[in-house]
Amino acid sequence: MRNYDLKEDIREYWSRRSATFDLAFGHRIPPGPELDAWAAAVREAIGPAPQKVLELACGTGEVTNVLLSLGHEVTALDFSEAMLGVARAKHDGNTRARFILADAERTMEPDQTYDAVICRHLVWTLTEPEQAFADWFRVLKPGGKLLVFDGDWTKPTPIGRIASLAVRVIERFIGHDPYYDGAMSERHANIMTRLPFSGGLTPEGLKPLVAAAGFAEVRFPSHRPIAVAQRRNADLRNRLRTRFYRRFVLTASRPEDGATAGPHLNTLPQPEGISS
Ligand SMILES: C[S@@+](CC[C@H](N)C(=O)[O-])C[C@H]1O[C@@H](n2cnc3c(N)ncnc32)[C@H](O)[C@@H]1O
What we know:
This protein has helices spanning 6-17, 33-46, 62-70, 81-90, 129-139, 158-174, 186-194, 203-212, 224-232, 236-241; strands at 52-56, 73-78, 97-101, 114-120, 140-152, 216-219, 246-253. It is of the alpha/beta class. α2 crosses α3. The protein has one domain (6-265): Rossmann fold (3-Layer(aba) Sandwich). Bound molecules: S-adenosylmethionine. S-adenosylmethionine binds at residues 10-11, 14, 27, 57-60, 62-63, 78-80, 83, 103-105, 120-122, 125. One of its GO terms (biological process) is methylation. GO terms for molecular function: S-adenosylmethionine-dependent methyltransferase activity. InterPro entries: Methyltransf_11, SAM-dependent_MTases_sf. Residues 54-148 form the Methyltransferase type domain.
């Protein structure tokens, strides 16, 4: 018996990666086309600034930077002190940013406080997704927006398999990239097997869970503009990496008071353009 649970393992894993996280392709959001693409996706999903935004699992503060660049007032949380330290240093002195050490699944933030709740690459690693979505619904004001950027990191797409083979060939010549996601590392793989989304996180699987928490208007805008922007300044290996996994964007809203919440409001078309 060990007094050490899955969440502790997850926290320790990310804490260990905090110092080099930004060096792994796909994490840092460089100014230029990529920052513009992320900013456009946020603007499209939540509307114009200024808004009160809760950013969950902010990591090193890269999405925080997108939100601040748009003019929002951001509360950014993470449960890793080490990650939060990097984010705090990056945005030191910015009076529109507040950083807190907290669990994204139980934020402890007051009810109906935020205009938008946003996260990138968190949902796949939730240990209690239903609890988390209920909490995010609770902290949103009526009419508030949920915006999720995520992907199925458990298995490459058919094109991703070919791309990953090509990367392996390239790495025979130029060597292994020590910073790229530890997707294949033993520790990461072990955590993966114990997660609720161990079988993969898909838009189809996520939609009913989000709707069950009371969210309406669950939609899947295209992730493609972000992937295209990432490819613009990337070398061949990183361009191939943008093809590995099925990534997607989810948007949803908390119904206005008086509107009936629940899955039946969720009368939207099938997800389209969800992979990149
Ligand atoms: C893949 S990183 C993503 C970081 C950031 N969102 C980004 O996209 O650059 C995952 C982050 O989620 C955080 N995290 C995972 N589970 C969490 C939880 N339950 N509460 C708060 N943070 C969590 C980790 O500490 C880590 O910083």
